[in-house]
Amino acid sequence: MEVAGVPLFSFISLILTVVAFIIDIVGFATPYWYYRKIAALNDVTYKAGLWKICTPDCINYENSKSWQEAVQAMEVLGFICLLAALVVLILKLFVMKDKQMLKWVVVGSLVGAAIFILIGVCIYGGEAEKELKEHIHFAFAFVIIAAIMAIIAAVLLFLDK
After folding, report:
1. pTM exceeds 0.70 for this model
2. Would 68 be classed as within a structural domain?
3. What does the pLDDT look like over 4-32, one tens digit per residue?
């Protein structure tokens, strides 16, 4: 079965990869890995992401701890792998249809992206202070969802002919 001349599993893999890429961008870029509204301080909101801390004005991290830099590095590598997978998958499906090697490059890139993203999540979960872990927010969940979608896309592409 085909959709627009593309095998069904490959087409579904493309859709999942695009959605995973968009979700990863949101989780990667927004300062909502941590969010807390402190009622005792006149409902002051405190939020933080991989790159900024906002209370209410946003500032870039300065003097980051080594675990924060490790999380940033893993998430950047995951993002780059996801971008590479998306570009190569589009080339494979629409330009170089006969190049089977590109399929395996995409599968490897998707699995690599998921591994890097999940390593970053694990480092954050293991090293962050208790306060940060108790108030995680949507961006943290988005990168996890993106990693899961990348794994599903890789499996579907692997199963395709």
Report:
1. yes
2. yes
3. 777 888 889 999 999 999 999 999 899 88
